[in-house]
Amino acid sequence: MWFRRDLRTVDNAALSHALRHHNITHCVFVFDENILRHLPRDDRRLDFIHSSLQELDATLRQHGGGLYVLRGDPMQLIPELAASLGCDAVYCNRDYEPYARERDNKVAALLQKQGCELRSFKDQVIFEQDEILTAQGRPYTVFTPYMRAWRKRFTPALAQAHPTPLQNALPLPPSSQGLPPLDALGFTAAPTQTLKVKSGRTGGEALLLDFAHRIHAYKASRDFPAIKGVSYLSAHLRFGTISVREAVSLAIGEQSEGAESWLNELIWREFYQQLLWHFPHVAEYSFKAEYRQLSFPGEDRWFDAWCQGNTGYPIVDAAMRQLNQSGFMHNRLRMIAASFLVKDLLLDWRRGEAYFAAKLMDFDLAANNGGWQWAASTGCDAQPYFRIFNPVSQSEKFDPEGKFIRRYVPELAALDNRAIHAPWQAKSLPAGFVLGRDYPQPIVDHAVQRELALTLFGKKQQGPA
User: Fold this and answer.
1) What is the CATH number of domain 289-462?
2) Class for the domain spanning 1-123
3) What interhelical angle do 300-308 and 314-326 show, nearest 10?
4) What is the rounded average pLDDT for all residues in the chain?
């Protein structure tokens, strides 16, 4: 059983099949050097994964087994381990990202040469690949009809848990192949975080239970970053410490607007997964062909200010500082920050996408790419190019008392609830507070940049003269 983005023993499709069909099941995780070599030493995700693996290994050991933990190229290590253990099959759950598909195809081919088979299963989504198509047999590129088709096709049986009887034989790996300390892998523990994300299965279960008491209010509270309105389960869904079936079961188990709204978010997640599967080029290029050659005139110094949370727009800066400090960003703020980068700073959405990819604890290629292309108006079913978020009005609407801003931009804490959204427009500022010294002046004028963005995108929309 090859664990990847499914770090749990409960309701695990591939593990369930392995235990059901084999007397002996060896469990393995590979720290993929093809991925690790590009990560900083203090990458938060490594800390989350390592802690989750500790719990996974402990659970397996309670049933007589344990986790093989290897580091290197899985395209070499998985076939080698399977051969050394005399395995006739390697079980895993499917991953839909371009690199993962290439990796798994190569592993399958190498295993086949040695008389072994790679058996993969659907686990991280309810519907995958070609399971939801239009009447013409094509993939959906607009969310609402996809959502309707998803709901029409869904039955509660699809959210039933996969049984994983761990009492079956789970051999203990040699101590030399157990889980090494994080520093032995070349990484350090994540820096102190303002938002504590509990890792592992127990962390995911605790958050799921906590959200179950709040899900009824999700629709009304989800857009306000200063309050506890969202599930905070994104990292656990990303690394599979909870299953999508558990999440969907929670959503369909309660009749409320909040539960309906959260189920839609889970369907958006699958919409972007199937989009990446059918159109893998979106990982590198705009979905809309007319925007692939778009020339963004924004300045590098603006990008640096955006990354650091020093744009002079408080809600944008608070969002970016939350990301930098915690590895998390509230979903409403992701839209505001992304829109600001592309439509105000006139910078390529791929630069922002890459920055989020490096910083987000819950980074998922399909969701991150889909979200950025939505905000940039370059994706399928995206925000129209002429609908541009005003960062001040977004701030006033979704952080009306400035509580979130004060938490992450403390230099603005003394400003009143009106001035804190746009200090440069304030009639008066606190004594001793100097705009431009204590907090930056806006690096761009939103009204001016909005017109430039409309011109930039409008020309492409109209096509060549």
Assistant:
1) 1.10.579.10
2) alpha beta
3) 70
4) 94
